């Protein structure tokens, strides 16, 4: 086997991390990066145990491996940078906005958004699936839930895109990403001041009331949470949509099965989450000396939990490197597990189902230009920034 290398900062790894994951799982399931000092954890059982153990694997420095967030992680990552019990209290307040009823009520809105967006593309033969469609819907949905005015939504998307961009080889946050995060905070701080003057029944109202009634969210925490929702709620779902159409196109027999039976779209969504997880990795900091497998992790070290690798672990999934719609994906870790399990999981699944159902209705014979597709540059998120598609219609 080739030499063990795993560098999440290299574009080559970001492009296709799966061969490195396989080597890690087989040769060094807990591996210390000599260059960056973090410990990569690659097997499903170890990743799952770490996700369930916040007392030893803490979120307090945030969930990305880049340096620079340690001091003000909560301002950037909100509840994703908190540990229990503080985390659980804050999450309980916020999760009132994500009840199954509230999420379910959004389906007609999401469908109308998808249909309108596709109708606007009906004369095009070639589109960019990401910028013309996938990026549009999730951001609109979270902005709608929060009550962000339509006129502001484009700038929010630009901030969000700039925030996840990384320069090749660098383990620091680029200045453009830092600036974008400041801009987004600035936007929300004005917006919260304004929103407080109005009484609201939407998600923003729920979050703001949680603060106003003297419960535990400070204004800074409210802003941080809005910030997290915009990022977590738009980038990841966009990547799920792009990865879904990409892999369906790469596996024609699977595609025929889904087109023949659209009730299988949810299975397509689940297998995409497993096979090419939009969030490939989440970071933790070790709270006290801990042993994982045969390796000792000292307190203070960073650990990188490779969700994308866990989801390809052959100890859990048969023929894990095959995209097989309809398989049992229940052990998949794409949305995390335990105390930080994705708060937007059912919303993401709803958005993905509706958007993909409408996409297949719109362009069942779509063809990708794989040569022209471009990956996002990120150490934690896997998806496309550009995915040119011909819609497969003559007129
Ligand atoms: C395909 C889409 C999505 C994926 C793959 C995804 C993935 C994840 C993962 C892996 C975590 C856990 C992180 C950790 O353990 O450190 C998480 C947490 C979270 N996600 Fe998602 N997510 C998605 C969509 C969404 C959406 C649509 C929203 C909201 C609108 C959302 C909001 C959140 C929040 C608030 C948390 C933090 C929960 C906590 O700390 O208790 N996510 N997500």
List the helices and strands and how they pair.
Blueprint: H1 11-15, H2 18-27, E1 30-32, E2 39-41, H3 44-51, E3 57-58, H4 73-77, H5 86-94, H6 100-104, H7 107-119, E4 126-128, H8 129-134, H9 136-146, H10 153-164, H11 175-196, H12 203-212, H13 219-250, H14 252-260, H15 265-275, E5 281-286, E6 290-292, E7 295-297, E8 302-306, H16 307-310, H17 345-362, E9 367-368, E10 374-375, E11 384-386, E12 388-390
Parallel strand pairs: 2-8
Antiparallel strand pairs: 1-2, 3-5, 4-12, 5-8, 6-7, 9-12, 10-11
Helix pairs in contact: 7-9, 7-17, 9-13, 10-11, 10-13, 11-13, 13-15, 13-17, 15-17
The protein binds protoporphyrin IX containing FE (HEM).
Report on this structure.
This protein has helices at residues 11-15, 18-27, 44-51, 73-77, 86-94, 100-104, 107-119, 129-134, 136-146, 153-164, 175-196, 203-212, 219-250, 252-260, 265-275, 307-310, 345-362, and strands spanning 30-32, 39-41, 57-58, 126-128, 281-286, 290-292, 295-297, 302-306, 367-368, 374-375, 384-386, 388-390. With 395 residues, the protein is of the alpha+beta class. The protein has a five-stranded mixed sheet with strand order 1-2-8-5-3, with helices on both faces. Strands 4-12-9 form a three-stranded antiparallel sheet. It has a two-stranded antiparallel sheet with strand order 6-7. Strand 6 and strand 7 form a beta hairpin. Helix 7 crosses helix 9. The model has no long low-confidence stretch (mean pLDDT 90). It binds protoporphyrin IX containing FE (HEM). Protoporphyrin IX containing FE is lined by residues 51, 59, 63, 79-80, 91, 142, 228-229, 232-233, 236-237, 240, 278-279, 282, 334-336, 340, 342-344, 347-348.
